[in-house]
Amino acid sequence: MKWVEKFKEFGMSDRRVAEMTLETLKEFVTEIVDEQLKRRQHLKQNERSVEEALAAMDRIRWTPPPDSPTTLQLLREDREH
Length: 81
Prior knowledge:
single chain, 81 residues, mainly alpha, elongated
């Protein structure tokens, strides 16, 4: 949720943070922190270990055939045309 939306939710669209009561400010900050923690927790559940990520990279890596042109050769060829 964007900060502006959160401000509006707390009736802050035309007020400044300095005008908030201490209790409202605490509630506002707590909600934002809770959202961020939930988002981070969700991301952690989907994370793979470093070993799993490296293994996946090895599985999908493609090596061109030995007689393939190098990237430099391909760039030169592209520049000529």
